[in-house]
Write a structure and sequence with these properties.
Layout lengths: L12 E3 L6 E7 L4 H17 L3 E7 L9 H13 L3 H10 L6 H10 L4 H10 L3 H13 L7 E4 L2 E3 L5 H12 L1
Parallel strand pairs: 2-3
Antiparallel strand pairs: 1-3, 2-4, 4-5
Helix pairs in contact: 1-7, 2-3, 3-4, 4-5
């Protein structure tokens, strides 16, 4: 079973405490329908496990299948550089059918960020290196599709429905 080769660090986007007994890492693509389905499941798992769960999101845009995925990831990274990663992340998944520059700008301005600065960052590729570093780490960890989950460093190859993922997380907590 493949394992996470890049350990979770302060460079990651993390919700939850480092001391949580279980860490769930997702490699995701903002345009991937499966990732869109997984998003509310992850939110439900976070509510269910509370402080026992630390959640980490890493970018894995599948550009050939999802032409907006990398730009969406860069928009999330732009927001993250200004303290708004998680609201942008959630907004992208909650509006997955409308991905594109108008949405990114609307979400950014809703966070009090400059839509013009976001556009400039996207044009310049300011956050492309960060997105591609996540992608490369995923490849080294055996990610070959999205969403891919790791529980305490071990890849979760079963279904990501709530019951299955919840049971796997509960087993990792004990």
């Amino acid at each position: 079973m493949p394992h996470l080769t890049i350990p979770v660090s302060s460079a990651d986007h993390v919700e939850g405490e480092e001391s949580a007994p279980v860490t769930l890492v997702e490699y995701g693509d903002y345009q991937c329908p499966g990732c869109g389905e997984a998003h509310p499941i992850v939110k439900r798992l976070q509510r269910h496990f509370g402080p026992r769960l630390r959640f980490v999101f890493r970018n894995f845009p599948l550009n050939e299948a999802h032409p907006q995925a990398e730009r969406a990831a860069e928009a999330a990274e732009y927001a993250g550089a200004h303290g708004g990663f998680w609201p942008m992340h959630d907004g992208l998944y909650e509006n997955q059918e409308r991905l594109g520059e108008p949405l990114y700008a609307r979400l950014a301005t809703g966070l009090g960020l400059s839509g013009d600065d976001l556009e400039a960052a996207l044009t310049a590729g300011t956050y492309r290196g960060r997105v591609r570093a996540d992608f490369s780490g995923g490849v080294r960890s055996g990610v070959n599709g999205t969403p891919t989950f790791y529980i305490n460093g071990a890849r979760h190859d079963a279904s990501f429905d709530f019951a299955t993922l919840s049971a796997a997380l509960a087993a990792a907590v004990t």
